Amino acid sequence: MKNKAKLSELLKKENNIPKDSAVYLKDLTFSYEKNHPILKKINLDIKKGQVVAFIGHNGSGKSTLAKLIDGILIQDSGDIAIFQTIMNDNNALLLREHIGLVFQNPDSQFIGATVEDDIAFGLENQNMSQVEMQKRVIECAELVGMENYLKSEPSNLSGGQKQRVAIAGAIARKPEILILDEAGAMLDPKGKIAIRNIIKKEKELNPDLTIILITHELEEAYDADTVVVLSSGQILMVDTPEKVFANDELLKNIGLDIPFAHKLRKSLISLDIDVPEFNNEEELLNFLCR
Amino acid sequence: MTLTIGKFTPFNTVIHRLDARVKLIGLIIFLVATFLSYGTGYMNLVINGGILVIVIILSIISKTSFLKLFKSLKAMWMMIVLLLILNIFLPSSSTGDFFFIGEVKIYYRTIINVSFILLRLIIVLAETNIFTSTTKPMDMTYALEWLFSPLKVLKVPIHKFSMTISLALRFIPTLAEESERIMKAQASRGVDYRQGKLKDKVKAIISLIIPLFISSLTTSSELTDAMEARGYNPDSKRSRYKLQKWSLRDTFGIIFLAVLLTAIIILAIYRFDLFTYLGVSLPKL
Amino acid sequence: MSIIIEHLYHTYDEGLPTQQIALQDINCIFDDHCFTALIGQTGSGKSTLIQHLNGLLIPTSGKIDINSYLIDISLIYKEKKGQQVVDYKAMKKKRKAKLKDIKSLRKKVGIVFQFPEYQLFEDTVIKDVSYGPKNFGLSETEVLENSKKALDLVGIDSSYYERTPFELSGGEKRRVAIAGIIAMKPDILVLDEPTVGLDASGEEKLLTLIQKIHADGTSIILATHDMDVVLKYCERAIVLDRGKIVKESSPLELFQDREFLKHSSLEPPKVFSFALKLKDAGLNINLSNVKDVSSLAQEIKRARG
User: Considering only CB atoms, which residues of chain B are within 8 Å of chain A?
Assistant: First the structure.
């Protein structure tokens, strides 16, 4: 009884945070070295079930943000709330149960000796029964298309396969928030596409899942409902992908690529061809062939 | 590439399928049996000979390359020859019966002693080889953790040790790949790992060690993050995905081992002398 | 400086259960002053092929002629019962024999591996860049001159010389590592996925740099997944799939070969597909002029009159 009371105390919800908020950041500041803040007073509210993409150049603080949300790093000041509960030293481990985090490097996040061991690692940490674990491992291996490799060791797998296993390992814990920190960055195009498709599939199966994609690739960001542009530790813009990518001055300033159609329009305008605003490539094509 | 001795071989024999814990207990019993004294030197030889027969049968069943083991241990053979010569020419004791080869006086005791040492060495190597080549490193870790689990009462963090060993085993191939990669990159920069002056060689090694060290540090910090992200907490209770199911063959294995253990203990305590029993007279040692 | 490869085969772990055929009957020529793309998915044999170019790997069989440095493991025959059979033993012996003067080959062919920042180890940037040229026996002044030039080329200025490479940013580290290879003044520069992990601006800087090195007279062999890069920078493209060369042509020809693209997992660059669509819709686009967005815009302007 006492334990239960304690638990509810630990996970106390704050009423001033919106009810539909999954991740709520308030004045979040973090620095690795003194006086060199990586993140400066970040304020953001990510709603339940949203797909949010964080884009920004290397060193903009995207990955740091992911680790803060997962409680792996601890902020200098400001608050993080997961489902209305403000994170502190005592409840960080509990709140982490809501979150799955997949990193960039396929090799260093493969923990188990084989594929099945790796997927099970997070379940062992949840002290799950063996029978249930076995079911869950197979389920998740199937989701990422690795069911035929359960006994394989990491040295016999490609980078793309290892990343798929890492995703299975994260999803197996049934998180309500899934964060992918450049999960495709080290893979070839085929590997990247496979990962995007897996995430889309998981979202369809589980529409309430909140997804945070950290990326510097535009195509990936197109899968999101909302794009957050980060630069030098600050949020520059929060909007739909279409709006953000139309703002090519901003993208260029922070060292990101501009979508092809926008780039072409700009090039044409600079050659004195007057191209009106358009919504998609098709319209541009039609205009040019007229 | 040559087959490495003692490395896990991915066959699927009865011995491979045996529970790692049974195999670990088996290894211990066999080692004890090998090192017990059974009274006379002749009896030691006979019983160890018997153990050797069992070990050979086991290694045939488990498809471990018994012969290859000895071919690959060239250094050991040199040692054995040296041991033989030393013992024959400088006998440790000059008692008992002896015979002559030419001018050299040779004691029966020496012959028995040397063959006994040799036999023990072979048996110990073969026993360990069977264990390591039929048991996956991870299963070995599990078995060791299980064996030492009584120490938990004394607050020894057995689980943390075993996790450390598992992770080390997991990352050996990664480290090997990494070092090959770095070696190739440095070779492309004109490093010659085989030839050159001592100073160049030292530099060559440094050009491998430092990047390897840095990448290991990166890997371990990333690994820590990944483990934390999947909810690892060294102080809380974890369940286990891989519990080997105890099967009938494991029970048989344990029964076999129990019989063996009883037999050797009886033999060791009662010092049963087969030769006296049979009335065979042998040279005095 | 050209490289001629004939009937190159490479098998890993030959004769073991883990045996894997990585390359099969590779025949190709990298011309003097070429800018060639090597295209292929992970596991296509790209990396294996690259490692043959400076003798890190020796062919299981076949011949490589790198500007008359010859590695020849062609089939050797012997007489057996009156029949000609391949003498595998003799070939194995030849493969194991030490290559003569391998350093001269490694000086000619510089390889920048994937994530080259891992090869940094000296305590200062300038020392690390000098390490390669020093190993190849250049004089002290030459070493320093080459290194400074290389660092200048990659855009690392003199204020960095005495800093330790480990405290630089990821992109800077990579440029220093690449400078370490450029400072060797290779005649052929091979780069394996040099832009992986860089953001758009870092990527563009690096490619411009490679183009500059090429303009200075160095042959470039570039392994890449990025078809935009292939179209914009490369003169030829070699496509590898499961250890075989499945296509060797100009990028223009490659991206027009719809039949081939359909069966491979390659996607032509967006610029090119768009240009093709424009052309199909009746606009008179000269595809050979389309290299990137700005050249496409110019073509559109020209075509529209």
Answer: 136-138, 166-167, 169-170, 173-174, 177, 218-220, 222-223, 225-233, 236-243
| Residue A214, min C-alpha distance to chain B (Å) | 16
The answer to whether residue C305 sits within a structural domain is no
Residue C170 CB partners (closer than 8 Å, separation 6+): A58, A59, C117, C197, C198
C304 lies in a domain? no
Cα Dmax for chain A:
76
**C13 — contact with chain B (CB < 8 Å)?**
yes
Cβ within 8 Å of residue B109, ≥6 positions away: B41, B91, B93, B95, B96, B285
Q: ipTM exceeding 0.85?
A: yes
Please give chain A's pLDDT, 290 residues, in tens: 456 667 778 888 888 899 999 999 999 999 998 888 999 999 999 999 999 999 988 778 899 999 999 999 999 999 999 999 999 998 999 999 999 999 999 999 999 989 999 999 999 999 999 999 999 999 999 999 999 999 998 988 999 999 999 999 999 999 999 999 999 988 888 899 999 999 999 999 999 999 999 988 888 888 899 999 999 899 999 999 988 988 878 888 887 888 888 889 889 999 998 888 877 788 888 888 87
Beta bridge partners of A184: none
Residue A108's alpha-carbon distances to B106, B140, B178, in angstroms, are: 62, 23, 12
Between chain A and chain B, the number of residue pairs with CB atoms below 8 A apart is: 102
C53 phi and psi, to 5 degrees? -70, -20
Cα dihedral A168, A172, A176, A179 sign: negative
Domain count, chain C: 1
In this structure, what CATH number is given to the domain that contains residue C234? Answer: 3.40.50.300
All residues of chain A having their beta carbon less than 8 Å from the beta carbon of residue B226 are 103, 108-109, 111, 166
Phi, psi of A99 (to 5 degrees): -120, 140
C83 lies in some domain: yes
Interatomic CA distance for residues C49 and A274, integer angstroms: 48
Domain residue ranges of chain B, discontinuous segments joined by +: 14-135+245-278, 149-229
pTM of the model: 0.85
Nearest CA to B51 out of B147, B121, B131, B133 is that of B121
Q: Nearest C-alpha of chain C: how many angstroms from A69? A: 23
Query: Which residue in the set A67, A97, A155 is minimally distant from B231, CB to CB?
Result: A97
Exposure string over B55-64, b if 16+ CB within 10 A, otherwise e: beebbeebeb
- Give the helix/strand (H/E) hosting C65: strand C61-66
CA dihedral B186, B188, B192, B193 (to 10 degrees): 40
Do A125 and B232 make contact, defined as CB atoms within 8 angstroms?
A: yes
> Residue C125 is part of which domain span?
3-268
A102 closest CA partner among A198, A26, A22: A198
CA B93 to CA B110: how far, in whole Å? 8
Residue C87 lies in a domain: yes
- With contacts defined as CB-CB under 8 Å, which chain C residues touch A186? 196-197
For residue C240, give the DSSP letter: E
Nearest CA-CA distance, residue A118 and chain B, Å: 10
DSSP H or E stretch at residue B185 = helix B158-188
The residues, ordered by sequence, that sit 6+ positions from C43 with a Cβ below 8 Å of its Cβ are A158, C242
Q: Which residues of A touch C274 (CB under 8 A)?
A: 260, 264, 281, 285
